[in-house]
Target: RagB/SusD family nutrient uptake outer membrane protein
Amino acid sequence: MKFNIVSLFLLVLGMAGCKDNLEETPFSSLSKEIVFKDEDGLNQATLGVYQAYTAPDFTDISNRFILTESGHRYATAGIGIGADPYYRFAHVPNSGAFESVWNRFYKIIFRANVVIDNAKLAVPDDESEANPYVAEARFLRAYAYFNLVRYFGGVPLILQEINSLNDTDLIFGAKKTSTEVYDAIIADLTFAENNLPDARGGVELGRVTAGAAKALLGKVYLTMAGKPLNKTENYQKAVDKLKEVTGTANETKYAFQLLPDFASVFALANERNREIVLSFGYFVNSSNPNGNILPFNLFPPGLVNGDEQTNYGLTYNFYKLFEKTDTRRDFTLVEKYVYKGTARTDVQPGDSILYDSVKANYIVKRTKLSLGHDDYKYGIAYGKLAREPRAAGAAVQGYGADLIELRFSDVLLCLAEALVETGKPAEALPLLNRVRARAKATASKAVSAADVRAAIRKERRLELTGEFNTVFDIRRWGTLSEEIAAMSPDQIVDNILLPYTPKLEIYPIPQSQIDANPNLKQNELW
Model:
């Protein structure tokens, strides 16, 4: 693969694991002998791996969202014709989203490798003091590879520090099989669960834990059990691992909880709550002026500021999947709201905005005119983020909401799914209904394995849509052809919906990487 080496020194940006408790300590071009001279330097270097998940560029965060949340029966274009070409399956290897996402995760891997290979320099007399930092870096590396293998299949494995441009075997590594990548992920997470604290609090809240490692490892096993690997023996491994973090005693031990109120999980004042298994902090300051771009790109215009773009939509059929009592419905989807933006010719502050399911676009209640394009059908905007205005003076995309990657409700539903696939639907049902009860939805009365399986799959969409899961779920279930068959051409701009082809089961490796690395081969059919 192509790897950009700015220098042979570690860049430690040291973002806080908790926004308001850890100060940023910027370094540039410091040798590793200086960075790793003591435990404080090791700590800052480890925080630099976390920081690589969020800053400073932001476009790949939107691209990650599109690549995991568009391209299924309920996805549409947004008002800004966003998600194109991915939601209609017209992407090609040189599409920019693939390059930006690839680069982000390999930057994370690079930083993690530096910490892993040099941690003992900081505490040479006691390996046990280095291990927790190594475990953090290995967790973060594992999560990067877990994303890469689900997006692109087999990818180059770089498991040691790149010290020189002469390290061509690492810089131009060949593509490994998906199984080899998963083996590395399991090894990293196993080390992490054995060397991290069970839970954290205070200034360390937000840093990964043994509980998070176990939860993620359970999800990895569940993913491997499905398509394309079909390693069905891993369903039981998923059950065993996920049971280590669920149940009253384990949830207390690892500080996990299903919060009683769904919307509060995403509130800015409640970040890093006990339902959040893994998240990455966003804050807006001089070193990270861009913030979290997702509210800007996903909210409907005027929901909180006025310049939101709505680059992604969901169909009204998805809205109708929710029961009227389900507290998730009107938080996940913005069906109506009061316009809070600046005055325009077509809308004024205080106007009521409604989604017209017949026109399939937003209208201004006062004028009955469309807010946005009137020449194609776009979806209801996604709203499952803290609906709070950005800080005064911030850039238009400068929202401070953390990026939530894994919640405890996901863990419960992963365990329920693994139980069904190991022949225990009756044991799975209470887990499903626990998630539904929190949302004030009717308890499922499914009995057969097929019905419980279908209920869990539906529940994953109701609970987790927009949280970097949908496309990955569809792929491991092997239902993409069904998703495309269920799509209607009128939810596609210009009514052009491309047919299913097996190549759509995985994304192409970025063409720029193929061009730069003679040892890297493109995925089949691409």
Remarks:
- The two ends are 18 Å apart (CA to CA).
- The domain at 35-195+506-516 is CATH 1.25.40.390 (Serine Threonine Protein Phosphatase 5, Tetratricopeptide repeat).
